[in-house]
Each structure stands twice: as structure tokens, then as C-alpha cells.
Amino acid sequence: MTSSTIEDRIMGSRAKRVALNLLAITALTAPLALIAACSSDSQTGAGSTTGTGGQAQGSGGAGGSTPGSGGSSTSSAATGTGGEGGSGGTDPGPNVDVSDPQLYSITFKPNDADPDAKTKLGNQPAYLDTRVTPRGLLVVYLHGAGVPGTCGSTAHEQELAKLGFHVLGPCYESDYGVGNCKDDIEGCRLEAFDGTDHHAFVDIKPPDSIETRVAKGLTYLQSKNPKGDWTYYLDGDKPRWSRIVISGISHGASSAGVIGIHRNTNRVVMLSGPLDTDQAWLKKTPLTPIERFFGFTHTADGQHAGHLAAFETMGLVGKATTVDGAMPPYGGTHRLETSAPTSDGHSSLQAGGVSPKMGNEYVFAPVWSYLYTSDI
Predict the structure, then answer these.
(1) Are the C-beta atoms of 55 and 99 separated by less than 8 Å?
(2) CATH of domain 3-27+41-64+91-373
(3) pLDDT tens across 207-246, in order?
């Protein structure tokens, strides 16, 4: 089954309804009042597991593994080999048990999964919806700058789970202030990612790094939800990056971009980012092929011009194209923008909060489906 066939089965009439709503919203001639998303970024509590029942749509996983090399690097060059290894033949995907279809919702703290974790000990949400066909891909979703009580966005991550992804939102160091990193913001972001010394301003140890927390989190999730086969996304004690989509918003978008430079991931999806204006990493040849990078920006975002400049410097596929009044595949471009009415363009590109809705559906639902699931 091709990825486009899976997408058609998952989205169905829901995507068509939301796409028509996106057409309708641009026909309005007066500013709309904000229709705020009422979904709260709350959680059920540390170490908790909940489920929401429903009707199964299918079972199985994604076929075909993507061979690749990850590897460590310094902040000045994406060198080295290693990371996840490629495998020959057909990859059947994770062995997910869909006999009891439901939305699995698991919340835990970094030190629940790893007693060596010492900083940024917020709640890490994870989701798997077995009411839809599993894609055999994990989305690691990175929050913006700061120290959130719940990392990532529970609303956005649940939207991704509806698309058939395993989803994890790790807590990580993002409050160091990129201005303090001067002309090597990449070094700070990379140290937050792998926990090795890349920049003098930050001091982040491996147990507090994104990469270690993803690996430890997957092992923990396997113990709490063995039906989800979460350790499928591990290659030894490291994340299996060839089956992982790295994504984030704002600071998390730029960090996702840096990770895509230094690891061969399945895909990179950047919301309200990247920025890092004039930073050297934007010009590097990434280990994740550039045709697997996607960006989405709002014209009302004060950083919008910087996002477009970053898309251009990185060489993202296509040209800046509005999603307003349009339907996927948006001409095949990987540079998307919107002017949809909202009180906060920067924050609106992830589900929840100020992301616009039409009725019960997010206006950007078909956009997210394209960003995360379109054929490459």
C-alpha cells in the first residue's frame, strides 16, 4: 500500500470538509473573530496511561525501511557515520496491536524514564491512535523556547496521532537564549540535541538531551504500552532516525532543522521557523535530503520574513505558496504560508490555543496532513 493510499484512507471525508472550510475562510471580507481552540494542553498526570475507544479502520504498519546514516558531528560540520543502520528487504513496520482500537495517551516525566535526567523535568506526552492505520513512523515534536510544564502541544500531537503516527513530545533545554550563542546558534542547539560539548555558553549532559530522552522515553513507553511496539523506533540504544519525523514550532522548528542537518531523519517539519538569520548551519548540506524538509509560516508573524529567508537559504523545494483558498498538494512546494485570521500568527500554526477552527475542525488540518504525510 502506498503512502498516498494510506493517507486517503485516514483522511477521507474529514479532510475534504476541512479543505472546503479553508476555501471558505478566505472568502470573508471582514476580519473574523478568533475562534479559539478549546483543547487544553493539559495532561492526565505523570506516568499515567489513558485510552479512548473507537472504531478501527485497519491494522498493520508501513512498509519499506529507509536506509541511512546518522552520526555525530561538531557544530561546524555534519561529519561522521553511524546512527541507525539500513536494512535490506521489506520492513513490516511496528507490530502494533489494533485489536482494541483507541487513543492511547501516556504522560511521564524525563526522570520516570531515566533517573539520570536532572533538568527540564516537565510532563512529556505521547500518543498512539489505533483507530487509524499505523504509519510506522514516529513524530518527535519539539516545543518552543522556555520551560513549559507540559512539553510539546498535546492538541497538536493528538492531531498527528489521528494521522496514524506514534507521537512523543520530549522536554529539553530551550531557555538559554539564542542571542547568547552569538554566531554559533547551531552549537547550542546541537548540544541540546546530543548532550556533547559544542558551545561554551551551554552545559547540557546526555541524560538531559533530546536524543537520549527520545531513546529512554521509547523504552519507557514500551513498558507502559507494549501493544504500541514503541521500541521499533530504536536502533540499539539510539533513536532509529530513518523512521522518525522531527518537527517543532518556533525555537523547536529551528532545532528540528539543525537535527535534520546532523541526522538522516525520515522528514523535517518546521512550523513558525526556522529563523537563526545568517547562521552558517542554514547553508550546510544536510544528512536528511533537502527534499524532505518542509516549512510553514504566517504572514502576520513578526518573524515571517526571516522564515522565508531561511527557506531560501536552505534551498527548500519550490517557492513560497499560500495555503489560503487552496488544497493539497499546493503545487508540490515545501514552503507554505498563510494569512488566516488569528490573534497570534506565530503560535497559530500548531493545533490548540489560537489555531483557527471552522466548526469543530482545525482550518490547517489539511495543511498538516500534507506537511507530515505527503509523498516525497
Answers:
(1) no
(2) 3.40.50
(3) 999 999 999 999 999 999 999 999 999 999 999 999 999 9
